[in-house]
Amino acid sequence: MNTILEHIKTSKEKSNKLLAILLDPDKIVIQNLQDTISKIETNPIDYILVGGSKVIDGLTDTIVKKIKKLTTIRIVLFPGDFKQISNNADALLFLSLISGRNPEYLIGQQVKSVKKLKKTSLEIIPTGYILIDGGVETSVQKVSNTIPISQSNIEYITMTAIAGELMGKQLIYLEAGSGATEAVSQEIIKNVSEKISVPLIVGGGIRTKEQLENAYKNGADMVVIGTAFEENNNILTSIL
Ligand code: 1GP
């Protein structure tokens, strides 16, 4: 099987747009997990992302193991903290919050994860994570103690993405924050996607078919949906 990064890159070359569902271990109702996963499986979902800003120790690993038993869809960790790294997933978005100026989330958490990563077979994908103002103060902003970039500052967002690519990031993730009231604008997605050559992930506040299609049309290679699915497990049928 291709690595996940190879699959994302090949999909980009072929303009096959990808969709990932984000499950936050902190918000999952374990008793409903089987039903949640079957709702994901009946739709063309490429990846399950698992992660959250505040997750109690050990819970991510427990949830990942349970999801693995229920589906063959590959699991990609999207950790808010190095303690969320689970060897039972398939890959790790090795995030660096390049929009922020907090060294802890630029390099500190990554250093803390090394002991674990040295012993793992997880596919590690260097990802430049860019937090953009999504209209509300999101958990990422609070936990990382960083300031999101204003949606009006397109040039700065684009330069941040380019700098990320030049630093060797294999993916760029434009994040409006979970539960954002304002998703990343079409203009931002278009500008960034035109200026970088690595695949572009977009997430935060995407709830409708129109938003999803617009993100794809403007150059998102993969979209991540969390809150909308969490609030209504049947939403995918109306979005896709
Ligand atoms: C959050 O980008 C993801 O990190 C998904 O955001 O929960 O708003 O869909 P939502």
Distinct ligands, ions and cofactors found in the model: SN-glycerol-1-phosphate
CATH class: Alpha Beta
Gap between N and C termini: 26 Å
Major sheet size, sense and barrel closure: 8 strands, parallel, barrel
Which percent range describes the beta-strand content?
Answer: 15-25%
Question: Going by CATH, what is the homologous superfamily?
Answer: FMN-linked oxidoreductases
Named CATH architecture? Alpha-Beta Barrel
Rg, Cα atoms, Å: 16 Å
Total strand segments? 8
Order of helices and strands: HEHEHEEHEHHEHEHEHH
Provide the number of structural domains. Answer: 1
- The count of helical stretches stands at 10
Give the neighbour order of strands across the main sheet. Answer: 1-2-3-4-5-6-7-8
Mean pLDDT: 97
Question: What is the fold-level CATH name, i.e. the topology?
Answer: TIM Barrel
- Overall, the morphology is globular
Describe this structure in words.
With 240 residues, the protein is of the alpha/beta class. The chain has one domain (20-239): FMN-linked oxidoreductases (TIM Barrel, Alpha-Beta Barrel). The chain has helices at 4-13, 33-41, 59-70, 103-118, 139-144, 154-166, 186-195, 209-217, 227-231, 235-239; strands at 18-23, 47-50, 74-77, 91-97, 123-131, 171-175, 200-203, 222-225. The protein has an eight-stranded parallel beta barrel with strand order 1-2-3-4-5-6-7-8, surrounded by six helices. Residues 22, 175, 178-180, 203-206, 224-228 line the site of SN-glycerol-1-phosphate.
